[in-house]
Each structure stands twice: as C-alpha cells, then as structure tokens.
Write a structure and sequence with these properties.
The chain is of the alpha+beta class and 132 residues long. The chain is 21% helix and 22% strand. It contains 3 helices and 4 strands; from the N terminus they run αβαβββα.
C-alpha cells in the first residue's frame, strides 16, 4: 500500500512553474558569454565585484608526491611499509586548491601544528592558462 505524502501547496507551486514555462512564447533570449582574455579579468577590472564569491569554501591540499602501484602491491601494504614517491627529499610541495596547482611551498611547524610556507605562487594568468 502506497502512502501519498505530497503536499498540495508544493504541487501547486510546481504546477504554477510548469504552466509559466509552458506559457512562454517565442525563442529564448540569446545570452552571449563574456569574452575572456589571457588574464580572464584578473588584472583589476573595477567593474568586477568579487564580494559574491569570497565566502565560497574551497579545499586546500598539499601533495608531497605521487606513485603508481599495482593492486597486488597495494594489498600487501601494512603498518611499517614504505611507499616510494616521485619527489626528492627537500623538493617543494605542491599546494592545490580544489585540485588545481596554485603554489609550491615547504613544511613548517607552527604551535605544534603543521603548516606550509609558500615559496612560489603560480600567477593568476598561468592558473587560467592551465585550466584551458
């Protein structure tokens, strides 16, 4: 036995929205994207309002290095195993924001917590170029 849990007011809102959409006539208005130059508007255009994006959370991660393992070797790992990475000791770490490289840095300890000191920041124009 099925129980109807739909709310009549919700259904009315959906019906109104569908009727409004069905009632539109003519072609939809064409929207042209803004042309992006090499700097993609990052050079201080006074008309760009960045306030709308400043509170969006992003994920920052640090990459010490990478390696590739066959599943057979992965399943043999246990406590005390050592996995060799593709970086040399002392090489800078990659700083990634949502998976995109933005800087290089070195590990520091601040108040008994790990941190990173940025040693090289990728320019905004270079970051945009890498996204293409």
């Amino acid at each position: 036995m099925a129980i109807d849990t739909t709310n009549d007011s919700t259904m009315d809102d959906w019906a109104a929205a569908m009727a409004e959409q069905a009632g539109t006539t003519g072609k939809p208005e064409s929207v042209q994207p803004a042309a992006l130059g090499d700097d993609a508007g990052l050079t201080g255009n006074p008309e760009v309002n960045l306030e709308v994006i400043l509170d969006i959370p992003v994920t920052i991660s640090l990459e010490i290095g990478r390696t590739s393992l066959p599943i057979r070797n992965l399943l043999q790992l246990n406590q005390g195993s050592i996995v060799e990475l593709d970086r040399l000791a002392g090489e800078p770490l990659d700083v990634l924001v949502n998976g995109t490289l933005i800087a290089h840095g070195e590990v520091v300890v601040v108040n008994e917590k790990f941190g990173i000191r940025l040693t090289d920041v990728i320019s905004p124009a270079e970051r945009v170029r890498r996204l293409k």
